[in-house]
Amino acid sequence: MPSASPAANSGPVPTEASALDMTSVLAGVWGNKLATLVLAPSIAVFLWFFVAYQTSPLKKYPGPFLAGWTNLWRVWQVISGEYAPRMKKLHDKYGPIVRIGPNLLDLDMPELYRIIYGTDGKWVKSDFYRNSSSVIDGKITYHMFSETDPTLHAQIKRPVVRHYSVPAVLAMEPLMDSVITDFLDTLQKRYVEPNKTCEFGDWLSYYAWDFMGMVTFSTKFGYMEQGTDFDGTLAIADKSIDYLALCGQMPWTDFVLDKNPIYPIGPPNVGNVTRIAIQNLTARLKGEDKNFTEGKPDFLQYFIESKSTHPDLVNDGSVIGYLLLNLIAGADTTAITMRALFYHLLKHPHTYTRLQADVRAAFPSPFEPASYAKARAIPYLEAAVKETLRYHPAVSMIMERIVPEGGLTLPHGLGVVPAGQMVGMNPYIVGRNKSVFGDDADEWNPARWLQRAGEGEDEYKDRMQRWGQSLLAFGGGYRICLGRNLSMMEVYKVVPTLLATFDIELEDPNEVWWTCSRWFYRTKGVVCRLKPRSG
Ligand code: HEM
């Protein structure tokens, strides 16, 4: 309000009125500056996004409005923990092509499998994968999963690929049998004899981690002995996979969060596992490793051999890298698969009963680790495993690839995706493709994988080959999962052994398990009662 006192106007002291004028002048000046400071960049950013959106070659493809503008939309889908089911809803709405990022198409087109996930090395992994790396001696170091350059990737893979072949992994069967025997004994003592409820889902994780410890360096971590994630490794592994999934949507964030030299705040390290890996390598090299028995090979032994066969490519540092990747990539994925297999069998008792009967016919005695060769000869077991990989793949996000020179010609005249854009398929989505698996693709039904009544041998083989191209649980092409033979051997051995040894029931037949779909399709639950084998 202006002052009414004339005296007040005579001195040098500003009047209330002039002070207010000054304030409003300053406010005007600062307001203008502030407006310029805030508004101008906002307009520039908006224009940048607008032009990028309008001129994008992917603009014509359908998808959620926001997804075409910013990758933040995808970050939100990951945070939700419902990534795969949400993507499935989008495919149900928009069809086989959904634009899920300004430069990314999610394709439900199994016919493109051999092109996008080919063996020619032309389709390169996107930067999504690169944040799964560590800073060693100040240098960002990539491993087999995260290295995107095909030449460098081949250099990492070449020295060890043969160690993951079926014969190399079969040579580890004695080690596997010892862990399985331990698993049975532990369950028997802790749960069957005292007739106690078993957190069976958790135990499959403890088993999977101890199994990987055993085949990797002939030592169990001790999760089965302790009956808990005593050193927090399992929880840390979950966090590091979530970090991959989240930062992977905007890969530059990894350079701000984890790779900045001042204050890195990336995922926690699996420090305990690293320590165990280093201890084992050192002891083995000094000839002091008491866990290792000649004639019972493990991956550590194989990797040490690789130092001699490929001295130019493998050193002690790379051996540690190989050891850690085995554990991070191999334990949870296999645990997820086994948990899903048991959950769905138990939720569909007719499938459980059938598998149990077929397994017990092949394995009449309890407490004997099933031989891999014999287990593979049980058709319904094979069907149940394939159905699990289809219905609940351990990896439940799109596997991004960069479109190479020449672009990607989409089928049915849907256009050409130019080079430099990103496309990919999600094992969960393609696994539920109704044109491949039928109208009941959203249901669990192992029998779909069996030869149908009236279906000829050739016809069946042909169907299995086509279906195989839609089973992306292990990825494909030159980046296909390195550990698939190992994990399948683990599953094919332990599942029949458990079914032959115990009667397994859900404690609550109405149990609905907890799921979280990010890079891994994590689950919790499958609380069971284990009883001595009845028949
Ligand atoms: C059921 C168990 C498993 C599933 C479902 C699974 C799934 C996958 C998938 C989908 C990929 C490809 C990712 C992509 O291309 O984007 C992959 C890659 C990989 N997996 Fe597995 N995995 C399993 C077990 C294992 C095991 C046991 C190991 C190691 C012992 C392993 C080691 C690897 C490695 C090293 C890669 C990277 C290969 C490369 O890029 O050349 N995985 N896995």
Protein model, in words:
The structure is a single chain. The chain is α+β, with helices and mostly antiparallel strands and 535 residues long. It contains 21 helices and 14 strands. It has helices at 16-55, 72-80, 83-94, 113-116, 150-157, 166-170, 173-192, 200-217, 223-226, 233-247, 253-257, 271-285, 299-309, 316-347, 349-362, 372-376, 379-391, 427-430, 434-437, 457-468, 484-501, and strands at residues 97-101, 104-107, 124-125, 133-136, 139-142, 197-198, 399-402, 408-409, 416-417, 422-425, 502-506, 514-517, 521-524, 528-532. The strands form five sheets. A five-stranded mixed beta sheet has the order 1-2-10-7-3. The longest helix is centred in the N-terminal third of the chain and has 40 residues, at 16-55. Protoporphyrin IX containing FE binds at residues 144-145, 157, 325-326, 329-330, 333-334, 337, 394-395, 399, 473-475, 479, 481-483, 486-487. Protoporphyrin IX containing FE binds next to helix 14 and helix 21.
What layout of secondary structure does this protein have?
Layout: H1 16-55, H2 72-80, H3 83-94, E1 97-101, E2 104-107, H4 113-116, E3 124-125, E4 133-136, E5 139-142, H5 150-157, H6 166-170, H7 173-192, E6 197-198, H8 200-217, H9 223-226, H10 233-247, H11 253-257, H12 271-285, H13 299-309, H14 316-347, H15 349-362, H16 372-376, H17 379-391, E7 399-402, E8 408-409, E9 416-417, E10 422-425, H18 427-430, H19 434-437, H20 457-468, H21 484-501, E11 502-506, E12 514-517, E13 521-524, E14 528-532
Parallel strand pairs: 2-10
Antiparallel strand pairs: 1-2, 3-7, 4-5, 6-14, 7-10, 8-9, 11-14, 12-13
Helix pairs in contact: 7-8, 8-14, 12-14, 13-14, 14-15, 14-17, 14-21, 15-21
This protein binds protoporphyrin IX containing FE.
Protoporphyrin IX containing FE is lined by residues 144-145, 157, 325-326, 329-330, 333-334, 337, 394-395, 399, 473-475, 479, 481-483, 486-487.
